[in-house]
Amino acid sequence: MSLERPRQPPESDDDPAALADDAAGPLDADALRRALGDAALATEEHVHAPAVQIRPDAVQSSLSALRDDLGLDHLSCVTAQEYEDRYESVYHLKSYDDPTREASVVVPTPRSDPVSESAAPVFRTAEWHEREAYDLVGIRYDDHPDLRRILLPETWQGHPLGLDYDQTRPQVVRYDENANPLAEDGRADTNTMLLNIGPHHPATHGVMHLQVALDGEQVADVEPDIGYIHRCEEQMCQRGTYRHQIMPYPDRWDWGGGGLLNEWAYARTAEALADIDVPEYAQVLRTLAAELSRILSHMLAVGAYALDVIGDFTATFQYALRDRELVQNILEDLTGQRLMFNYFRLGGVVWDLPEPREAFFEKVRDFLDGLPEKLREYRDLLTANEILQARTVDTGILPPEVAKDYGATGPVARGSGIDYDLRRDDPYGYYDELDWAVAVEDDCDNFARLLVRLREVEESANIVAQCVDLLDGWPDDERTIQSNVPRTIKPDDDTEVYRAVEAAKGELGIYIRADGTDTPARFKIRGPSFSNLQALPEMAEGEYIPDLIAALGSLDTIMGEVDR
Predict the structure, then answer these.
(1) Distance in angstroms (rounded) separating the CA atoms of residues 67 and 52
(2) pLDDT score at 175
(3) pLDDT at 303 > cutoff 70
(4) Mean pLDDT, range 504-510, rounded to an integer
(5) What's the CA dihedral at 137, 140, 141, 146 to 10 degrees?
(6) 364-414 pLDDT tens trace
(7) CB atoms within 10 A of CB 511
(8) 411 preceded by cis ω (within 30°)?
(9) What are the Cα distances from residue 539, in Å, to 188, 209, 445?
(10) 516: exposed, middle or buried (C-beta count within 10 Å: 0-12, 13-18, 19+)?
(11) Which residues contact 439 (CB under 8 A, 6 or more apart)?
(12) Pairing state of beta strands 192-197 and 50-54?
């Protein structure tokens, strides 16, 4: 049985000059074909980027070629899916230097033997992504360093996203004691002790279990155990209609304040899929709401970090919650909600600014006017605090090349000196019309990630101020909040798209495959915390237990988007 879709087969082209031009110029399907040579089976076009199918035994050589020859050094997501005649793994590649250089690598395998080569030796971030693909869909990956379930218990029967999965079958999960994770490393004779942190523990910032092996007082090995609140968000979105039923879900992926940013991720993806325009006025409203949401998220991250690292509940944590409340009040006026905002709509937003507009503008400007003094307080309490400095400077080191290997984004990547921000580098909304800067720190430690978030609050406030000025002077007859969107959206069958936004915690992406109906055939969420959390062992091994807690807190993970 053929595994190829009906696409144009590639032609042979090994022209060195053409390959050199591909490394510098825009990417297209022919450039991918030239870079991959005989490994390419066929080329195709996804809505957002060119795509190429490759042999399942050529994954590592193909991804290495695309990384080294074409500069696609960011594996942002891996999507697994099952068709009636085959399985597919889709590797979504970008460039950290220019995320508009994108490509999709499609790896088809037969249903009778869904096995392909693992990408983990090329991109470390593929380890967790492929484990999830195996867990939920059933694709197996040769040469994977640790291919086992990641969201479901090891004793689970079947793969829930498989077409033949029996949802009525009961699952009996036996109890297994945790084994020493170093036992298979040949170091079981060392004086190690197993320490379980979580799953219910304030320092884990959610329902997560850290399985830590200690060698004396130092962390010899740490393994994040996730999946405790896996809520099937992707499957629920696959059952919802594009136009009306999916948008309420994204808020629930990040209850720390980033819900509006998540809504934008879905809106941007679905609008690209269905070719929907957004009025300029609505883009300004979206940008205003998104940056307020970013401040909301970072205030919680900074306050919780003070609690994690120096036990500061009475000052910094409560100050941060106080200032979050001011933003919550503004967003409640705008959206009508305090947690699950549901403000974005395909083609725009649900409604305009509250009346009277002048009172709303005054409320926002009052908050912005008082913010600089409050940020000085945070810096006095945190970055100038000798105890916090001792706990965070030169701990939790994440070098830039390691951060890229794990697909780290957001403040985690920018704290490692990686100047990567989709608001600037892959512009959407109204960001490219505004004057603002990307916050980057080069020290790669826990302290640097804290500094990035504090600086980003300042930049978000700067963006909000500009949006308020624009909205205040916007002509009354040009305040279009939503384009004319069809009541029922049915993208063409076999149309595929991956789009992302710069959420508070990093790159939040969504892959959608349409099947000609008004609901997605595949809906895949790329949560930034998923990839960022995978890098925790690199930051914590060799450190002490308090350093582990500081490193985990510096990632600012939210388990709603890790487990999804």
Answers:
(1) 15
(2) 55
(3) yes
(4) 95
(5) 90
(6) 999 999 999 999 999 998 888 899 999 999 999 999 999 999 999 999 999
(7) 27
(8) no
(9) 22, 17, 9
(10) exposed
(11) 411, 414, 451, 452, 455, 456, 459
(12) unpaired
CA distance 564 to 238: 13
Query: 275-306 burial string, b = 16+ CB within 10 Å, else e?
Result: ebebbebbbbbbbbbbbbbbbbbbbbbbbbbb
Round to whole Å and give the CA distance between 213 and 215.
7
Please report which confidence band the pLDDT of residue 313 belongs to, taking 50, 70 and 90 as the band edges: confident
Above 90 in pLDDT, residue 269? yes
> How many Cα neighbours within 13 Å face the side chain of 443?
14
- For residues 118 and 72, what is the distance between their CA atoms, to the nearest angstrom? 17
- Euclidean distance between CA atoms 47 and 45, whole angstroms: 6
pLDDT at 23 over 90: no
Contact 352, 336 (CB under 8 A): no
Helix 446-472 × helix 280-310 angle, to 10°: 150
Q: State both tokens at 383.
A: 């970055």
Query: Nearest-CA neighbor of 536 among 520, 517, 521, 549?
Result: 549
Token pair in block for residue 7: 């696409």
**Closest listed residue to residue 447, CA positions, set 416, 421, 420, 419:** 416
- Residue 39 and residue 37: Cα distance in Å, rounded? 6
Measured CA to CA in angstroms, residue 390 lies from 83, 245, 455 at distances of 54, 49, 21
Sort 167 into a burial class: Cβ within 10 Å, 0-12 / 13-18 / 19+. exposed
| Predicted confidence (pLDDT) per residue in 122-133, tens digit | 999 999 999 999
Token reading at 410: 């957001």
Token couple for 175: 């109890």
Question: According to the model, what pLDDT value does residue 240 have?
Answer: 93
What strand order describes the sheet that includes 209-215?
A: 192-197, 209-215, 218-225
Q: pLDDT tens-digit profile of 66-106? A: 999 999 999 999 999 999 999 999 999 999 999 999 999 99
Cis status, amide bond into 199, omega within 30 of 0: yes
* Helix H or strand E segment including 88: strand 86-94
Nearest to 40 by CA among 81, 80, 75, 4: 4
